[in-house]
Amino acid sequence: MARLEWSLAAKPDAAIIVLGGNDLLRGLEPAASYRNLEGIIDQLAANDVEVLLAGMQAPRNLGADYANEFDAIYDRLAKRHKILFYPFFLDGVALQPAMNQPDGMHPNEQGVAHIATKILPLVKTLLSKTGKP
Questions:
Q1: Residue 18: how many other CB atoms lie within 10 Å
Q2: Which of 109, 112, 71 lies closest to 92, judged by CA?
Q3: Angle at 72 between CA 58 and CA 102, to 5 degrees
Q4: In a structure prediction context, what are the per-residue pLDDT tens digits for the chain, which is 133 residues long?
Q5: What are the structural domains of the chain?
Q6: What angle do CA 40, 126, 9 make, to 5 degrees?
Q7: β-strand 50-54 against 84-86: which pairing, if any?
Q8: How far apart are alpha carbons 105 and 20 in whole angstroms?
Q9: What is this structure's pTM?
Q10: What angle do CA 75, 81, 85 make, to 5 degrees?
């Protein structure tokens, strides 16, 4: 949360939350990820920052129960807080070798371009909610 407080010093109008990948790698309980994300959303709301939440999806090798529980936290948060929601940040990029760096997890330039193109309509909606040009 300290990094968020530092970011809020710039008085942003909007924020895109893209978190959860590292939680997955550590096998963090979905309930803990939910609480962490909710704390961020609450703090942004308290500072009148419009939010776009971008979801992650758990690898199926973590087990169906874990994957289903983890995947659902983003939709639940978006509905609860009535914020914009992009279901899967890595849509069209995950598991696509040509779209990722050699580690197979992080998008390369082509992957980032794909993500930017897909999420752009919601980013435009997010910016329109700020009431600023």
A1: 16
A2: 112
A3: 20
A4: 668 888 998 999 999 999 888 888 888 999 999 999 999 999 999 999 999 999 999 988 889 999 999 999 999 999 999 999 999 999 999 999 999 999 998 999 999 999 999 999 999 999 999 988 7
A5: 1-89 (3.40.50.1110), 92-126 (no CATH)
A6: 45
A7: parallel
A8: 13
A9: 0.92
A10: 40
